[in-house]
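1st attempt posting a full record on here, be nice pls
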Amino acid sequence: MRLRSKLKDLYESPTPTVALTDYEEFSKFMNRAEQRCGETGGNFDVILDWTIHSLILSLTSDSPGRIFLPKTRTNQFDLCDLLPVEDIQPSGKRLMALKDLSIIAPVWSNGDLERSLEAFYSGGYQGKVLDKEVSGICIPELKLAIVCNNVDDIYVQRIWRAGAALFDMYSLKDLEPILSTDGAFWYFDEGDGEESSEPVLEPRMAALYNCGLRRYCIGRT
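the predicted structure (as tokens):
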């Protein structure tokens, strides 16, 4: 029997995980699409919208699927591992209906998830406003929320289109002058010509961020 590497198995499985997304391949696709639109007079916004939708769908689908991974191989979720905004002030807070958002809420604990499902179906918190318990942010242009505590309650309610939560708001237009990425690192404008950086841990988020900037900020009036 031919021996195969575990990485090769991942790439050749029936549905390779999109967590294997390569930022360079993403960039090649976007550059080719932009060039083609320039040649044909096509609308590049359509490409950006499709890519944003695909990346959000991938990230939001993977976040509950973490429950099926070995707990010895995964860590609890840290917001700044996905989008490093801990040192950036939000523009404010807003109560958002969960049904109107895509939610990245990586579930972690089998027991907590089971309790959240039981509570929902027993009517314990259907429609509840989770205004004091949620640690999370919302990017309004993308209609995307990222949640890093009480992820089970948030995710269960979102799936069945119930409830609302209070989020810190981070507009792409506010983030653009401060935060940038090349797919390998996140860069922070510290002012006075100073810059700091952190490695990108999730290429899909870097790709999504740059698509969002191009769609809603760069060159827009």
